[in-house]
Amino acid sequence: MTSPIPPASATTPPPWHRLTPEDVLARLAATADGLTTAEAATRLTAQGPNTLQQRRKAHPIRILARQFQSIIVWVLIGAGVLSGFLGEWTDATAILVIVALNAVVGAWQEFKAERSIEALQELNAPQARVQRNGKVTSIPATDVVTGDLLLLEPGDLVAADARLLQATSLGCVEAALTGEAEAAHKHAETLDADDIPLADRDNLVFLGTSVASGTGTAVVVATAMQTELGRIAQLLAETNEEKSTPLQQHLDSFGRILIFATVGIVALTFALGLWRGTPFLELLVSSVSLAVAAVPEGLPAVVTVALSIGVLRMSRRHALVRRLSAIETLGCTGVICTDKTGTLTLGQMTVRTLHVAGHDFEVTGEGYSPAGEIRIAGRPPDPAQHVHLLELGKALVGGSLARLEPIGATCKLVGDPTEGALFAAGLKAGVTLEQLDRELPQSLTLPFDSDRKRSSILRLQPDGQLRIFCNGAPGTVLSSCNRIAAHDGVRPLTEADRATILAQAGSLADQALRVLASAQSVIAHRPPAELTPDTVEKDLIYLGLAGMYDPPRPEAREAIEKCRSAGIRVIMITGDHPKTALAIARELGIDAAPSPVTGADLDRLSEPELRQKSATAAVYARVTAEHKLRIVRALRADGAVVAMTGDGVNDAPALQGADIGIALGRTGTEVTKQAADMVITDDNFATIVAAVEEGRGTYDNIRKTLQYLLAGNTGELLLVTGCILSGMAMPLLPIHLLWINLLTDGLPAMCLVTDPVDPGVMQRQPRPRSSRIANHPFLRMMFLTGFLTAGVAFATYAWVLRTGTLDDARAAAFAVLVYAELLRSFGVRSATLPIWRIPLLTNPSLLIVVLASFALQIFSQHNDTVGRLLKTAPVPFAIGLLYLAIGAIPLVLLEILKVVRKPASTAKP
User: Fold this and answer.
1) Can you state the angle between helices 89-111 and 299-315, rounded to 10 degrees?
2) Using one digit for the tens of pLDDT, what is the confidence trace for 154-213?
3) Kindly report the CA angle at 419 between 413 and 423, in degrees rounded to 5?
4) DSSP state of 595
5) What residues does 168 pair with on adjacent strands?
6) Is residue 477 within 8 Å of 518, Cβ to Cβ?
7) Is the pLDDT of residue 489 over 70?
8) Catalytic residue numbers, as ranges
9) Distance between CA 894 and CA 121 in Å, rounded?
């Protein structure tokens, strides 16, 4: 035998579908008898095992180090180090512990999120039946090489990509690879066209797919990473870049602003102090205290808590989040790219209409469940019509090899999806398989093949004759019929009847339904050798038509409408036929052009052209995994925040390439789940809308909490700076700043992130990727609030300092600042609603924390031990009430501002 061909990666693979079986064998240096053991061993050494390559795993230390890339983290670390340098070990310890805990949580999330390639291994067939040395043998799938002959039968997982040499009624389920729910019928004939989509390469079988029916022999043309599944694995590895979420980008941007502002203020204060002759050490302590006051120590913890609460809330709504930041990313999603099969649709072929004896019947129910009924004009059929339906139902059940296994309230299909749909429709017509098997036991099967385009099952009647049930394409079934079961009985089939039936079939096909015809006949018993398609499938009685499709999920249309009202584009991306994709899109209310964009169209588009096309296209059909990834990248390049949903292996690269990947939990493959950021456990498209709502609510909570924290820090900063510039002593000591930042600021902030989602959050347009969390309105409100808080504290401090001691003045400033911050937590819950229109009990934890903090503050003013710890003087109760009233001034003024300012300025929180 000639030497083996080089590894597949060494040359560009030929278009195997265009080569004849003989040419394929010649190219692979193989024969119809299979390889020898020695030849296979040589090729295995040259090509390597038939396994998907695994990526190099990141070291745990490296993953942990990635958690310190954020600028805000280094701001906090710097503040902690400076606090320790000045001997403020309580401050330093609190800050550094917060940073460390957040790093550990982030690293743990990453440890669990990178298993996509390993999951692909589970789709490899553990064993493969091949022909070697002229004999059939079973070998590990990892030992399969190019040139091996695969022997395929129902239930097999295909071990490699292979070109069919022979096929008998072979059907393969390729939904996970192509997105089509219907089994693909395979043949060994040569295909002429060059640019045939993957789903239409009917003379090839692919690694990771399964055999639903029939038998076949195929020669392996690609193994391991050269297979179609391997190409997806490679795409998955290439798309595993670090994705910076909008929230991370905004916090990093804010971190830079915080650094520049803090350094500028501290430098200015330090320079003024030197100019005024302030002692260097005193000035250094004051400047560092100023810097510590500017840093929101609780910010990382607040963000983590907010996202964790979002995870908990979403889990209650059937969404499991694998990456915390995915919650916030969902909130700014502007485009949802969704697969059709199994996502917008049930992923189960369903008969929707029957045409029997001149009448059109509607079939209710979804999927393979026998639950449902058959109606005509909205009512049950009359007895005469039911007789005709029963005859058709017998052909649908008796002519099918599929079976439905009850699993709870649903059924699991065993067999071909098309036959399963016919079987379920026959059950709804009133036929039961048990009774049919008793009355007409199965005798012989003539399976479907691509030449006849029909299948027949023969059943034995009590009188010894054979009843034939035939199902197939309308044209081929009609060609075998010479009679028709009409409303007035069986009569000869005329040419006018044929034209009417074909017109009806065409009308159903125009509605994107797959149409099959059914017929029956009775023949005398004869030896099995004489029962061939040519002798059996003739002189049949035409019974009717069945129109089927993969139906949309009942809740999907409403969910899409909610997305539209929220300003979110929904784009369907499917490997299915363009006509089917367009029909489903229109039924669901997806805005679609007259014709979808196909994979062939995408191949002709450059990247700039694709970006332009993706701005308006809503339906893509006949696309591959590479196409899906290109579409997602084009949308992201155009500035959109993209979510991608799917369940098949072909969706995994696009899921990982999107800003957020959403997998279906029930029907999704393990590959898809591991590539996704979030898993929908109920496979309900409406859950995505709920997830977006939670994401928007989480972002709102983070934003208002951030403003609450920063406004408080701004007030402290302005107070300290004002006192230094005025030549006064420091109004707040480091212990005061720690008390305020971690207790009276930190605890209410933790409660603010638990606020319920604003009911109107889904009526807003999604915020752009470029929008900053600290935009101009945010900064204006932050400085205004900080100015008001610092103003009342400064005025109180200056007044008491003039009439009392420094300790009394510090206690006054400290108390006013604490009261102002605690009261302001109620007003910050909404940027538009005044405090009296926000029910307090909708966030009971905030109410409890504020009351408890008030109690602690009052207790500290009357307890000597706590007073010594906080270095404050006692405050009489009456004076404390005065400080409380002064502290309420900022809240009152801000609430008045909400009422008087124009609605346009408060459209967005």
Assistant:
1) 40
2) 767 888 999 999 988 888 878 767 766 677 889 999 998 777 888 889 999 998 788 877
3) 75
4) S
5) 215
6) yes
7) yes
8) 339
9) 60
